[in-house]
Amino acid sequence: AYRRQRQMCIRDRRDENTHAFVEIEYHDHAAHRNAHFTDHNGITMAAMGASGVAFGSARDADNHVAAAVHYRPHDAAGAFAWSVRMPPHADLLALAAGTTFVAAATSTRTLHIVSPHGTRMALRTVPGDVVTLSASNQSHLALVYAASTSVSAVF
After folding, report:
1. What's the pLDDT at 153?
2. Of 17-21, 117-121, 148-152, which gets the smallest average pLDDT?
3. What is the pTM of this model?
4. Burial (Cβ within 10 Å: 0-12, 13-18, ≥19) of residue 94
5. Which of 19, 64, 89, 141 has the fewest C-beta atoms lying within 10 Å of its C-beta?
6. Burial profile 138-153: b = 16 or more Cβ within 10 angstroms, e = fewer
7. Is residue 136 a contact partner of residue 97, using CB atoms and an 8 Å limit?
8. Hey, which bits of 52-147 come out as E strands?
9. Nearest to 68 by CA among 94, 92, 49, 48
């Protein structure tokens, strides 16, 4: 898992007036082709998994555009990019990308689990404010949230 994660880096993100240009460079060119795309969504975070990369964009200040998770597979064969919008008034706090899922935590204490194909798999309530998410290549998700006076972890 560690070696795979070390094989990729987001090399560049250049902000323009209305969009940004994102370039993903893989160190192992035999395994994956480099990719680049134009970001019109205002990406603020990313998480890399074994099958692809999840990007998170924030909601706009006027609530006209909801926060969203955007997914791009490492390889185009049999897979496609997708986007899933979060509920109105929810800010995206954390992302994690596993082998068989993408997890997104919001400010409404909700955990969204989506398949690498864009199908919503689960929606769970978190009993505190989410601190971070982490995924493994064995389909495990670690969720850390803050309780009223302490920090708790669910594995």
Report:
1. 61
2. 148-152
3. 0.79
4. buried
5. 64
6. eeebebbbeeeeeeee
7. no
8. 52-57, 68-73, 82-85, 92-97, 102-106, 110-114, 120-125, 129-135, 141-146
9. 92
